[in-house]
Amino acid sequence: MKTLFLSVLKPAALSLLLILLAAVATTAQSARIQTNNLDYLAAKASETVDVNIDEHLMQMTAKFFSSTDPDEKKIKELVSGLKGIYVKVFEFEHEGEYSAADVESIRSQLRGGAWTKIVNVTSRKDGSVEVYLMTVGDQISGLAVLAADPKELTIVNIIGPVDLTKLSELEGQFGVPVLDIEQPAKTKAKN
Amino acid sequence: MKTIKFNITRLSLLGIVCLALISPDSTSAGAKRDEFGAVVQAIEQYYHVKHQSIPFLARAGMKTTTTAMRIRGGQYKRLAEAGSIRIAFFEDQDFDSRGGLITFKTSLVSAVGETWSPLIQTLSPKDESQTYIFIRNSGEKVNVLVVTLERREGTVVQVSLSPHNLAILMQSPEDMGKAITNDATRDDN
């Protein structure tokens, strides 16, 4: 019986463990934040904007901008390498329409792992603005902005090599809202 | 022996035919979905409204809009590829979702199906204003489906765009729906 357990169940348990570890690793490596749990807020919000530019669309956009037209060339350089831009903005008429748990559901995905919160980042917008970078090795693989204003909740998730400079260049384009983020001369990072 | 072999061959053929009939490829090829029609139907069913086609509006002396969208280079160029435009209008009808905007959104997304990717959705329940843009690859072109609903009117537009035009419009996805709808309803004459 013991032999049967060792020969059949042990490999099965090991396989299950490996599958679970692979699933955890895949989730951990992805710079995409899940925001679907906030969709219910659209019913309460006075205005909702939901932008989904996936990798395919991003690459196609980069590919078809002209390399000779100076304006288009600049945008082409800006978006090349990006694998997605996802934006969700909820505007409310009154304060307290979204809960701390809603914000926490996003923040918890950005805590630890490969995500690093950039400190000393300020915004001219009201409320708190948190900016996170995901790094894999020396490479930045994603950026997330969580802006929680009493009457507005904004989540920006950019996948690919993007930093604060690139973020400010993207503001007002490709669905990225104007966040008015001001970066100090020396940016410190903490987990 | 010959009979058994014949029966086996017949059964195999029957099996292949059955498999071909139930395979997803054959179903999609056999009954190509009309997502544009499905979207119009979903709107009609949810809001109890009725769409009007272009010929009707043309006879009624439709005033077309001149789009503000201009592609760089000065002169206005059509965004949509010639002959690719499908439009359904809902004029002077009541689009009151009575708080059920999310329910409507679910039925709309279901009507659009999985071959289209949602690009942008803007909802403003207070004004009963909704815009949905879906995108689908179509060989060298890109199909774009725009649904715009206001309190008293609505438009469903499907167009084919060149990837370059799409790339330019992508810079400002919030304005894309308006630009495409205006372009599709613009009268060159």
Describe this structure in words.
The complex is a heterodimer of chains A (about 190) and B (about 190). Chain A is of the alpha+beta class. Chain A folds into two domains: about 1-30; about 30-190, no CATH class. Chain A has five helices and nine strands. Chain A has helices at about 1-30, 55-65, 70-80, 100-105, 165-170; strands spanning about 45-55, 85-90, 115-120, 120-125, 130-135, 140-150, 150-160, 180, 190. Chain A has a seven-stranded antiparallel sheet with strand order 1-2-7-6-5-3-9. A two-stranded antiparallel ribbon of chain A has the order 4-8. In chain A, strand 6 (about 140-150) and strand 7 form a beta hairpin. In chain A, helix 2 packs antiparallel against helix 3 (about 70-80). Chain A is globular and about 65 Å long. Chain A starts with a helix and ends with a strand. The model of chain A is unreliable at about 20-30 (pLDDT under 50). Chain B is of the alpha+beta class. Chain B folds into two domains: about 1-30; about 35-185, no CATH class. Helix content of chain B is about 40%, strand content about 20%. Chain B has seven helices and five strands; from the N terminus they run H-H-H-H-E-H-E-E-E-E-H-H. Chain B has a five-stranded antiparallel sheet, with helices on both faces. In chain B, helix 3 (about 35-45) runs antiparallel to helix 5 (about 100-110). Chain B is globular, with a radius of gyration of 22 Å. The termini of chain B are far apart. The interface of A and B includes residues 45, 57, 64 and 75 of A. Strand 1 of chain A pairs antiparallel with strand 2 (about 115-125) of chain B.
